[in-house]
Amino acid sequence: MDFPSKLIENAVVELSRLPGIGKKTALRLALHLLKAETDTTANLAEALAKMRFDITYCGTCHSISDSAECSICANQLRDHSTVCVVADVRDVIAIENTGQYQGVYHVLGGVISPIEGVGPSDLHIDSLVTRTTAEGSEVREIILAISPTMEGDTTAFYLSRRLREVEHLNISTIARGIPMGGELEYADEITLGRSIVERQRQAR
Amino acid sequence: MDFPSKLIENAVVELSRLPGIGKKTALRLALHLLKAETDTTANLAEALAKMRFDITYCGTCHSISDSAECSICANQLRDHSTVCVVADVRDVIAIENTGQYQGVYHVLGGVISPIEGVGPSDLHIDSLVTRTTAEGSEVREIILAISPTMEGDTTAFYLSRRLREVEHLNISTIARGIPMGGELEYADEITLGRSIVERQRQAR
């Protein structure tokens, strides 16, 4: 694509490095910014740069944070004996938005994936084990909230092995089954099969 | 949506002001930037700010430009007697990418739209008339390359009226008809009707 301006071209090239944004979309975004007030662009550029350079990670749970301890770990009203283990910060945000969880988190920073060269030592697994086994640790339950993919299941299996020696520790996995509003006939066989085997007794 | 960090929240809010980008996509983009090297974000922020603050518009054709005269108007190899009138800079880029046009452009900056309160005086119409009628003007042909929508047709009609008094000036419109690869049965009636009435004789 030819551009009438180097400035536009640079902006389009940088925008199209973002995931899911191609050259055409990038051009549309750039021209939108040109039409909008200068403040829109100034605020966007500043917010992105500030986010990237000023953000830190919580020393306990490795979630993104504005300070050395994230607001969830610092909150004494939350249940610090229950730790929900997730792959990514996005999962923390998703679970927080359900409003159903009162415990704390541990962000692994990914899942074990031999194909992409991600091993256990590349993830925050040692710090989870330390956090759980350290003297005076108040952790009593680990909830594995990892996506049920091949890599996710491998990671969950590895974590169970690492943690099974810890006394008085309950390890659970988030429930799997037919999603709310899901149609049985469109569910895959493995999900449907497991949801029958692991059927839940109804309260009477 | 709750965010574990004010910095992330600000970035998401600013990103989601862009057209076609909702909160979820904005969060995905923000987390992508956090995982990527700091340079990616620094370059993006700088390219956007530079584009918005340093860009100028060509004094002749009103296209975006890095200097007072755009590279197309400054190019003496192009045919300055033919002016292609378009609504938007995006159209200049689209036509340039066909590689089929050797003339110059005139960017109106929009189309006449009473509903959105855009009148002829809000567009670069007077400068087009001046450019065409000025003494010593070399303009001999005006190609109206405006989208065939209600507003576009109104704008084209208005321009034809304003320019019809100019002597020795040919005014043309880009060809309309069935697009390449288009199926006749899916074409709308007006397009199909016009493409029969305005049929083109085949060279033998």
From TrEMBL, chains A, B:
<comment type="similarity">
    <text>Belongs to the RecR family.</text>
</comment>
<dbReference type="Pfam" id="PF13662">
    <property type="entry name" value="Toprim_4"/>
</dbReference>
<keyword id="KW-0863">Zinc-finger</keyword>
<protein>
    <recommendedName>
        <fullName>Recombination protein RecR</fullName>
    </recommendedName>
</protein>
<dbReference type="InterPro" id="IPR000093">
    <property type="entry name" value="DNA_Rcmb_RecR"/>
</dbReference>
<dbReference type="GO" id="GO:0003677">
    <property type="term" value="F:DNA binding"/>
</dbReference>
<dbReference type="InterPro" id="IPR015967">
    <property type="entry name" value="Rcmb_RecR_Znf"/>
</dbReference>
<dbReference type="Pfam" id="PF21176">
    <property type="entry name" value="RecR_HhH"/>
</dbReference>
<keyword id="KW-0234">DNA repair</keyword>
<feature type="zinc finger region" description="C4-type">
    <location>
        <begin position="58"/>
        <end position="73"/>
    </location>
</feature>
<dbReference type="GO" id="GO:0006281">
    <property type="term" value="P:DNA repair"/>
</dbReference>
<dbReference type="InterPro" id="IPR034137">
    <property type="entry name" value="TOPRIM_RecR"/>
</dbReference>
<keyword id="KW-0479">Metal-binding</keyword>
<keyword id="KW-0227">DNA damage</keyword>
<dbReference type="GO" id="GO:0008270">
    <property type="term" value="F:zinc ion binding"/>
</dbReference>
<comment type="function">
    <text>May play a role in DNA repair. It seems to be involved in an RecBC-independent recombinational process of DNA repair. It may act with RecF and RecO.</text>
</comment>
<keyword id="KW-0233">DNA recombination</keyword>
<dbReference type="InterPro" id="IPR006171">
    <property type="entry name" value="TOPRIM_dom"/>
</dbReference>
<keyword id="KW-0862">Zinc</keyword>
<dbReference type="Pfam" id="PF21175">
    <property type="entry name" value="RecR_C"/>
</dbReference>
<dbReference type="InterPro" id="IPR023627">
    <property type="entry name" value="Rcmb_RecR"/>
</dbReference>
<feature type="domain" description="Toprim">
    <location>
        <begin position="81"/>
        <end position="179"/>
    </location>
</feature>
<dbReference type="GO" id="GO:0006310">
    <property type="term" value="P:DNA recombination"/>
</dbReference>
